[in-house]
Amino acid sequence: MFTQPAFAKSQVLTDIKVIHASTGSKTVDPGLKPIISELKSVFKYTSYRLLNEQRLNLSFNRKGRVNLPGNRTMIIMPTDMQGKRIQYQINIQKNQRPVFQTRVLLNNNSSITIGGPQFKNGVLLFNISGSAR
């Protein structure tokens, strides 16, 4: 008899912040204040602007979609729990063609920021936070 893993019924509350980072002006979007020290410690940009924020309530192995600038889409899916860490599969498509894919392990109730493609004299950054319940 097949039994599902304990996490199969869990929900993963996932927040995605799409950020435009660039050099030049020294502006920080007020919506990014809680994570700006993390951003500045990892990335060397002077301007950080929040373009989009989306909250997804995902089941394991269920895909969520986030529309990104430049005809791009992020497909994000929690795939596993490893101890207290959530594993995500992240794919970015442009015009429905894959351009980037990665897996990240994220401590439950924390966030990670990954660098993305170039966009308007800067880059897109993706801050992903997850909380398994």
Commentary on this structure:
This protein is mainly beta and 133 residues long. The chain is built from one helix and eight strands, in the order E-H-E-E-E-E-E-E-E. A four-stranded antiparallel sheet has the order 2-1-8-7, with no helix packed on it. A four-stranded antiparallel sheet has the order 3-4-5-6, with no helix packed on it.
Brief summary of the model shown:
By secondary structure, the chain is mainly beta.
Helix-strand pattern: EHEEEEEEE
What average pLDDT do the residues reach? 90
Strand order of the largest sheet: 2-1-8-7
Uncertain segments are: none
Can you summarize the main beta sheet? 4 strands, antiparallel
Distance between the termini: 26 Å
Number of helices: 1
Q: Given the C-alpha coordinates, what overall shape results?
A: globular
Question: Which structural category fits the helices and strands?
Answer: mainly beta
Helix content range of the residues, please? Answer: under 10%
Portion of residues in beta strands equals over 45%
Care to count the β-strands? 8
Question: Radius of gyration, Cα only, in angstroms?
Answer: 16 Å
Keywords:
133 residues, mainly beta, 5% helix
Topology:
Elements: E1 11-22, H1 36-42, E2 47-59, E3 64-68, E4 72-82, E5 85-94, E6 97-107, E7 110-119, E8 122-132
